[in-house]
Amino acid sequence: MNGTDENPTPRPNPVPHPDLVLRARIQLLISDHWALDGEEGLWVYRTLFAVNPRAHAYHLTRVLLGLSDHPRLADQPHARRALLHEAVDAAAHIPTDAPWHQTRYEQFARGALTRLDQEGRTPRPDSST
What we know:
Layout: H1 18-30, H2 38-51, H3 53-68, H4 77-91, H5 100-103, H6 105-121
């Protein structure tokens, strides 16, 4: 998908319904934390990322990386891989002038994908039965 000269990076998803965007913004504002995490953060930042990828790419990537490492997904490599691929895609929208730790998130996500692939090729010690 190609962008235009005015917007070289196309939006990753169609813009959600305005009510959903408003709800996500309100949820972010009423949060007790500076940033949301977990599944709550996932839906909020996915929604806001669709509206403004540049502004929300870092937070969406951070949430996706956190969820991909959740113990609940330890035995679900396909789910982890899907979250990590989405993290790589979201990280591509992080502005190049962002702080260094934000611009490195794409490397973190790619590294996690590599480790996941290596784990998939390496038999587990307890799987010999």
